[in-house]
Amino acid sequence: MKYKFLVPIVLSILIGLFFGKIFFDNYDSNSLTVFDEKDKVYMLQIGVYSSKEKMASSFKNYEKYLYISNDDGYHLYVGITKSKDLASKIKEYYEKLGYSIYVKENIIDNQSFLSVLGEYDKIIDITSNSDIPEIEKIVISNYKEMVLESES
C-alpha cells in the first residue's frame, strides 16, 4: 500500500465538497447587508398633486421643497431623514402648522448624500423646532444636487 496517504486527502476533498454544497444551498443573498451600500431614509410627504399647477396653488413655496413626478402625480416632500425618531419630530412640527404629513420609507444608494444627511440629522436632533424648515431646505437642496442630478 504505497498510496496510503491519498485516502485522507480524497476523504478531505469529499467532506469539503459536501459542506461547501450545504453552505451554498443555504446561502441567501438578501441576508448579507454588510456589503449593501443602500440605506433606508424617511421622506416626509406633504401631499400628492395631479398637476404642477394644483401643487403651486395649494403650496405656495413648493419650489423650496422637493417634488418628484411619478405616474400618479407630483409628490411634494418637506423633509428627509435617516432616523425614524427625527421623522416623527419633523412630522409633529408640520402637523402643528396644520399640514398632513406622511412618512415614506425610501432606499438611497448615494453614500455621499447619506453622509451629509447623517450630519444634518445630528443638528436637527439638538435644535429647536423652529429651525427645522431651514435645515430641511438645505437637506433637500443637497438631495437635488447629489442624488437627482447624479441619476440624470
> Helices and strands: which structural class?
alpha+beta
**Strands across the major sheet, in which order?**
2-3-1-4
Mean pLDDT: 83
Largest sheet: 4 strands, antiparallel
| Number of E-state strands | 4
Low-confidence stretches: none
Give the secondary structure arrangement, pairings included.
Elements: H1 6-26, E1 39-49, H2 52-58, E2 66-70, E3 73-81, H3 84-96, E4 102-108, H4 111-126, H5 132-151
Antiparallel strand pairs: 1-3, 1-4, 2-3
Helix pairs in contact: 4-5
Protein traits:
elongated; 4 strands; 152 residues; four-stranded antiparallel β-sheet; alpha+beta; Alpha-Beta Plaits; single chain
Describe the structure.
With 152 residues, the protein is an alpha+beta fold. It has a single domain (39-151), classed as Alpha-Beta Plaits. It is 51% helix and 21% strand. It is built from 5 helices and 4 strands. It has helices at 6-26, 52-58, 84-96, 111-126, 132-151; strands at 39-49, 66-70, 73-81, 102-108. It has a 4-stranded antiparallel sheet. Helix 4 (111-126) packs antiparallel against helix 5 (132-151). The termini are far apart.
Task: Put the structure in a nutshell.
With 152 residues, the chain is of the alpha+beta class. 51% of the residues lie in helices and 21% in strands.
